Amino acid sequence: MASTTVARFSLIFYAPPSAVLACKSAIFKAGAGCYPGPGNYTECCWSTMGTIQFRPRDAANPHIGRVGALEETPEVRVEALCVGEDIARKAVAALKIVHPYEEPAYHVIKLEDF
């Protein structure tokens, strides 16, 4: 018997604190962060502060730091549910538009239903 359950994905991204609100607003507008069912919750996510480390190479155009210099700076990790591959793809596209980094760090993980 084939399952009719819509695939669910976890979108995880990292952003500087000053950009988190714009990033969350963009992914929520794209449909991420919605939990279907009797509760009907929207704009749901989990976030935590951390520290990122990186060294921009010669061809980089860093938003934070400078080329050649090792940088450590605060960053926020945000996780949100995406119900359906189409929502996950739309949320990633929206994130890429508003995120200040030249290449935002993110993961999309397909979730299993046990």
Automatic annotation (TrEMBL):
Keywords: Signal. It comes from the Eukaryota. Residues 1-22 form the signal peptide. The keyword Oxidoreductase does not apply. SUPFAM superfamilies: NIF3 (NGG1p interacting factor 3)-like. Gene3D superfamilies: 3.30.70.120. InterPro entries: DUF34/NIF3_sf (IPR036069), N-reg_PII/ATP_PRibTrfase_C (IPR015867). This is ATP phosphoribosyltransferase. It comes from Elaphomyces granulatus.
